[in-house]
Amino acid sequence: xxxxxxxxVYQSVVHRESTYDGVYYTAVRTTKIVCRPTCRAKIPHAxxxxxxxxxxxxxxxxxxxxxxxxxxxxxxxxxxAVLAVQxxxxxxxxxxxxxxxxxxxxSLAISPYHLQRVYKQVTGYSPAEKTERVRLTHAQKLLVDSxxxxxxxxxxxxxxxxxxxxxxxxxxTGMSPTAYRYEQIGGETFDSK
Length: 193
Fold this sequence. Notes:
Layout: H1 3-14, E1 25-28, E2 33-35, E3 49-52, H2 55-60, E4 64-65, H3 79-94, H4 101-108, H5 112-123, H6 127-145, H7 150-156, H8 162-173, H9 177-184
Parallel strand pairs: 2-4
Antiparallel strand pairs: 1-2, 1-3
Helix pairs in contact: 3-5, 3-6, 4-5, 7-8
């Protein structure tokens, strides 16, 4: 590896940027440990670092995987992306429950602040917005594919009050649940709100 590329990759390690995550692996000669470039461990001195294109190459050279960033786990996903996938799975299965940031964080044994920051960094939006999107998708599907009442659909997606569900649905789509249902199934819209 030429010096210019080494310096570029090393700077990404210093700043814990994900630019080279999955592209290079950071092997530290003094500890004989190999990490992802985004590892939260103490930053090694540049003179002690060798970059490998593959984890297998570093392992064959005698390095062992870091216990903090676990480069051998989760394939090309970095730990932050794995956390976001775990949050998405919880939201997809529990969207009809009361999901708050503290409850999500507690189920993953991390702080709400850390969860919010990491999730938003990975996805570009908050866990609350993801929950809203999932609820809206399910509500729209139920409105079109079922004969359930608006009250039943609201309860099915986590709203205990029909008025709260209707107000929320109007804000998200610009029309009431009833108007949405009639528009989607090809009927006449009789309700403008």
